[in-house]
Write a structure and sequence with these properties.
By secondary structure, the chain is α/β, with parallel strands linked by helices. 45% of the residues lie in helices and 14% in strands. This is Enoyl-CoA hydratase.
Length: 265
């Protein structure tokens, strides 16, 4: 795992290019530690990408011992990665530079935003080795695509190219491969200069909206708005609007009050 800090943006690079960034137990532990380091108040946005020609092809099947008790492996080492991405109160941008397969697809979909190289693809390929989707894919695919499309992708394991992924709303934008890193960095930098608390509250709202009822969401919105409206970020945003200039946020630490609950999958 390689982590690079550029001002307030942390770039986390899955760094096993010879194995297409396949995940081993040690790799998953390093990734979890990297995501934990992103809670540093100085970090305001995160980019997740892969080294070499792949984003991540999922579980390293050469690590056969890790599948001897697959339920334990998934519960103890994959699920915490999804939760860490979902619960991080900062925007996470996936720069999908190449194949994102199996758990690699799950990691990408657990991020908040996705930019995808025009040569990259997704594949929910678990069925090809007699396994079932994990790393949050059953949750994400059914909600994004509906039962029929999600099931078709899971049982056939077919590749989804960048254009189709964008058409289905699985990625925010498809970009030429040579400009992916730059565009992901620019997006993360833009987000890092935004109102950090408001972005964190919005992330919590949208995460909860996947399973909460309309009435509950109305109350969550009210709670969150009460917190946001009392901040210096709001005051600066209003002043900037009135003065017809860009807002100048101080980039301070983002701490969400306990009154706003955290909901993840």
């Amino acid at each position: 795992m390689t982590c690079v800090r550029d001002r307030s943006v942390l770039t986390v690079i899955l760094d096993r290019p010879r194995s297409l960034n396949a995940l081993t137990g040690s790799c998953r532990a390093e990734l979890l530690a990297a995501l934990d380091s992103a809670t540093d108040p100085a970090v305001r946005a995160v980019v997740l990408t892969g080294a070499g020609r792949a984003f991540c092809v999922g579980q390293d099947l050469a690590a056969t011992d890790e599948l001897a008790q697959a339920d334990v492996t998934v519960r103890d080492t994959y699920n915490p990665l999804v939760r860490a991405l979902k619960e991080l109160d900062k925007p996470v941008v996936a720069a999908v530079n190449g194949p994102a397969v199996g758990a690699g697809m799950g990691l990408a979909l657990a991020c908040d935003l996705r930019l995808m190289a025009d040569t990259a693809y997704f594949a929910c390929s678990f069925s090809k080795v007699g396994l079932v989707p994990d790393t949050g894919l059953s949750y994400e695919l059914v909600r994004r695509l509906g039962h029929a499309r999600a099931y078709e992708l899971a049982v056939t394991g077919r590749a989804i190219g960048a254009v189709e992924a964008e058409q289905h709303g699985l990625v925010n934008r498809v970009v030429p491969g040579e400009s992916l890193v730059r565009e992901a960095a620019e997006l993360a930098e833009q987000l890092s200069r935004g109102p950090g608390l408001a972005l964190a509250l919005t992330k919590r709202l949208f995460t909860a909206a996947a399973h909460a009822g309309a009435g509950a969401m109305l109350e969550r919105e009210a709670l969150s708005q009460g917190v946001a409206a009392a901040t210096a970020e709001h005051t600066e945003g209003v002043a900037a609007f009135r003065e017809k200039r860009g807002a100048n946020h101080d980039g301070g630490p983002v701490t969400v009050p306990a009154v706003v609950p955290l909901d993840a999958i």
